[in-house]
Amino acid sequence: MLLTLLLVGAVSGVLGGLILALLSTGFNLALGVSRVVNFQHGAVVLWSMYASYMLWKATGINPYVGLLAIAPVAFAIGYFLHRWLISRSLSTPEDSQILFSIGLLIAFQYLAQFFFSTDAHSLTEDSLQHSLIIGPVFLQYTQIAAAAMSLLVLILLHLMLTRTDLGRKLHACAQNPTGARVAGLNVEHLSAVALGIAAACAAVSGTALATMAPIFPERAFEYSLVAVVVSVLGGIGSMSGSILGGLIVGIIIAVSQVTGYGDLALAIVYALVFLIFLIRPNGLISAIKS
User: Fold this and answer.
1) Neighbours of 179 (CB within 10 A)
2) Mean pLDDT of successive 10-residue segments in the chain (290 residues)?
3) Quick one: pLDDT at residue 1?
């Protein structure tokens, strides 16, 4: 029985971990390229959850089809948010930048509370309300679809970063902004693009999470904290670190829940992050590469 529970928890944790990996990848991309501690990332996830819910409620459209509209809007918001607002804070001390980002998170959270109230909303798309049973493993279609969409976006993001001219430019800005400027790159524009891509990733994560969990304003802070925790655990500024960290956190949470210790899941994750801070400040991915 215990082995069955562990198997179910591990499979469910991998599926959930892919969503967390995408959530963290967006946060890490903005941090690496734009040098922005993007605490408002969780607010973008929250507003994307509400956008998916409202679009689904108004039209009945499948939330993943609705992403074709929501993701481009999220990209545009992230881009112009950086160009018009966040870039102005980059000339201030780092602690002021962090406080500014947290202020944006709080503002967006309370705006969501003003427009949507504190009541929880649920997106229950009929086509996703089925289950798949493989031996002892019981999986909901919501989990499978959310993980598949997250994995697809992670693959596309990896190909973009490694195989395209835009990806090479973003790498150049992340590694040496001064050198990138000397080479003629528009670092401010590329930083805004990075934040736009991060917002689009948040939109996909938000849509996936909206099909699986209740939607309420406090989710903004929760998902910002998750993005930071996963990034620190796997490795700040590393896409592979985000994936590793997301899978680890997802498995810990899922296994804790199926074995009846769900209340301890976050305590275990935070303790692990604290331990990583002490012995491997660059994250677990650095230990693997070394």
Assistant:
1) 12
2) 80 93 93 85 96 94 94 95 86 84 93 94 81 77 93 96 94 90 92 95 95 93 91 86 92 88 85 84 70
3) 66
Considering the entire predicted model, what is its pTM? 0.92
The Cα-based distances of 60 to 52, 127, 212, 249, 265 in angstroms read 10, 11, 17, 33, 35
Strand partners, 139: 132
Residue whose pair of structure tokens reads 């500024």 in the numeric block: 237
The amino acid sitting at 23 is L
What pLDDT, on a 0 to 100 scale, did the predictor assign at position 172? 92
| Amino acid 289: pLDDT | 61
Do 197 and 157 contact (CB within 8 A), yes or no?
yes
Question: How would CATH label the architecture of 2-289?
Answer: Orthogonal Bundle (1.10)
> Per-residue b/e over 87-99, b at no fewer than 16 CB within 10 Å?
bebbeeeeeebee
3-state SS of the chain? CHHHHHHHHHHHHHHHHHHHHHHHHHHHHHHHHHCCCCCCHHHHHHHHHHHHHHHHHHHCCCHHHHHHHHHHHHHHHHHHHHHHHHHHHCCCCHHHHHHHHHHHHHHHHHHHHHHHCCCCECCCCHHHCCEEEECCEEEEHHHHHHHHHHHHHHHHHHHHHHHCHHHHHHHHHHHCHHHHHHCCCCHHHHHHHHHHHHHHHHHHHHHHHHCCCCECCCHHHHHHHHHHHHHHHHCCCCHHHHHHHHHHHHHHHHHHHHCCCHHHHHHHHHHHHHHHHHHCCCCHHHHHHC
Q: What residue spans define the domains of the chain?
A: 2-289
For the CA atoms of 66, 71, 76, 77, the dihedral, rounded to the nearest 10 degrees, stands at 90
Place of tokens 């956190």: 249
